[in-house]
Amino acid sequence: MTCAFGAGLLIYALFLAGGNYNNLFRNWATNPPDKERYAKEFSKILVLIALAPIISGVLSLFISKLVSAVILGVLLILFIVIGVNHMKKYL
């Protein structure tokens, strides 16, 4: 299930990679100076965040479900912090 969620996020990131700012949910909540660049950079961060459930899903095939859930939580927090710090430049 986590791999499917990660794949869904990757597909959404692919749509955003084209730079269409209107594909962003809540696009009315931000007003970046360069909307196309913002959408492209957001898609890169979304790919990074999508890796967390994919990695956790693959690891859950080989290790304990509890350990893979902890790895998922740690990776999500780490990738979101990296993404927030990266996106501050584009607001």
Task: Describe this entry's structure for a reader.
- This protein is mainly alpha-helical.
- The chain is built from 3 helices and no strands.
- The protein has helices spanning 2-16, 35-59, 65-87.
- Helix 1 (2-16) packs antiparallel against helix 2 (35-59) and helix 2 runs antiparallel to helix 3.
- The radius of gyration is 14 Å and the shape is elongated.
- The mean pLDDT is 88.
Would you kindly provide a brief summary of this structure?
By secondary structure, the chain is mostly helical.
Draw up the topology in text.
Layout: H1 2-16, H2 35-59, H3 65-87
Helix pairs in contact: 1-2, 2-3
Highlighted features:
91 residues, mainly alpha, 3 helices, 0% strand, elongated
Largest sheet properties: none
Instruction: Catalogue the unreliable spans.
Output: none
The proportion of residues forming helix, as a percent range, comes to 55-70%
Silhouette = elongated
β-strand amount: under 5%
Structural class: mainly alpha
Q: Provide the succession of SSEs.
A: HHH
End-to-end Cα distance, whole Å, is 34 Å
Mean pLDDT: 88
Number of helices: 3
User: Radius of gyration from the CA trace?
Assistant: 14 Å
Can you count the beta strands?
Answer: 0
